[in-house]
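Fill in residues.
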């Protein structure tokens, strides 16, 4: 049973290293099957966000020598959900949790993509100039 968990971790790590590859695989695969490129793009964003969260957390931990990366990301997502939920409640008078979660997850894709690029450049620069 242990080998299943280890295999899952290795596959996740492999896909998370270059999140553009799973994004393109999901996008082109789903678009080829259904023909709906808009839905394929959204699905690719959703899948890639899970990979980006893990990758950005590890990059943050390695660059800043901390263990707060994943917790910081989750905190930011929760705060964003609270702020978005408050705004929705003030505007409409009710909460649609599925809509809030979908919006935060997709905004997280853009935030994590930005952080991934920035932290990758910092990490590469740090490893080049540390030698």
């Amino acid at each position: 049973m242990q080998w299943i968990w280890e295999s899952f971790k290795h596959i996740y790590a492999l896909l998370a290293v270059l999140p553009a590859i799973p994004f393109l695989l999901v996008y082109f695969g789903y678009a080829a099957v259904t023909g709906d490129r808009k839905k394929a793009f959204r699905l690719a964003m959703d899948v890639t966000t899970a990979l980006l969260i893990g990758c950005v957390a590890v990059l943050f931990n390695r660059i800043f020598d901390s263990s707060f990366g994943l917790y910081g990301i989750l905190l930011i997502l929760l705060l964003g959900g609270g702020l978005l939920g408050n705004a929705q409640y003030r505007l409409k008078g009710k909460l649609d949790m599925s809509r809030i979660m979908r919006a935060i997850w997709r905004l997280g894709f853009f935030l994590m993509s930005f952080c991934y690029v920035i932290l990758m450049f910092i990490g590469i620069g740090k490893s080049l100039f540390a030698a």
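DSSP finds five helices and no strands in the chain.
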